[in-house]
Amino acid sequence: MARLRMIRHAPALHGGALAGRRDVGADLGNGAALAALRTRLGAAERVISSPAQRCVQTTAALFPDISFAQDPRLWEQDFGAWEGVPFEALPDLGPLSRTELAAHRPPGGESFADLCARVWPALQEIAAGGDAVIIAHAGVIRAGLAQAVATLPAGLAFEIAPLSVTELRLIAGHGWSIAHVNWCAP
């Protein structure tokens, strides 16, 4: 069994605008939450981060004494022309079903289905190497959950809070299971 503990980066310093592939820093000001999460995680043998600045900063804050790898397949969804657009100016996708939303591709960007196609092989490869802690984005964690429940649109049903832990397990011969979702420090 391989255990993947997936952590969403600390709150993004996005300035009120969409930041999928837009590289913004992390707000690491909540030292109590970082300390509680560090305590909960304990020692980590293998740590892998998205190359995004907000993920690298969160990883360094959680594991200051560990050398960690970066995997470009763990980047957030590319929202194309919507990157940097203020949240209130983004189109309303509320009328779309989850299936339609998973297939929707912003102009010049990728859909959630595209994100899953990129992330799923990465998670399989990481799990093949044994237990790991992954610091990434909400979309990447949702992709992992979609893989575990074996339905792509279901991944979009999960809310993923900053600095939360979602644990997936790959059990040989049985596939993926979800140990817990969205655990946040008190």
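That was protein one. Protein two is written in the same sequence-then-structure order:
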Amino acid sequence: MNEQEDRLVHLLASMEEDEALTLAKRMLLEEKQDPLRVLELCREAMDIVGKKFEEGEYFLPELVLAGEMLEQIGAVAKPLIDTSATGARRHGRVLIGTVHGDLHDIGKNIVTFMLDINGFEVKDIGVDVPIKTFIQEIHDFKPQVVGLSGFLTLAFDSMKETIAAFDNEGIRSGFNVMIGGGQIDETVRAYTGADAFGVNAVEAVDLCRKWLGVAR
């Protein structure tokens, strides 16, 4: 990592929004640097942000700001990727949504962004998603991975009910289920019946890579 790249990671992880966005746009639009490399630097910065959140140094406002910065940089970088001769193919399909009874979407949005820039085809179906909607989207989109998000503790029951409905529908064996958000740990994973949980977006990407056999 050169000095400029290190600075971008530092600015993003330190929540210095104006300077971070200015530098990222200069790297992308003026210096014509590889957009995939710039987004990789964003991913490294988000890893730092996630760790600071886990350690109690950052809180929800910082996660909101981090998500906003990622969204703005992604809006500039993604068209450059789409028009470049990357020849990139999508690794697989991931369906993601916040379970019924929960309206939080910060973490979900960051996971969606990170999966997208890592080569997965992602369909985000929003917040407060009814079980029947998940089931219909699974039939239509045919994902290899389904992500259930929820920040509130009441979401644990919603996750359990949603996964149980997949079983009842006879579709549970067709995909892996990951959960994330709030105070989710191994106990919650076991309670809901999910295959795995992730504490941040990087772990969510790693799970999808592992399940779909995608090398780093």
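The CA atoms of residues 9 and 84 lie 24 Å apart. Keep this in mind for the problem set.
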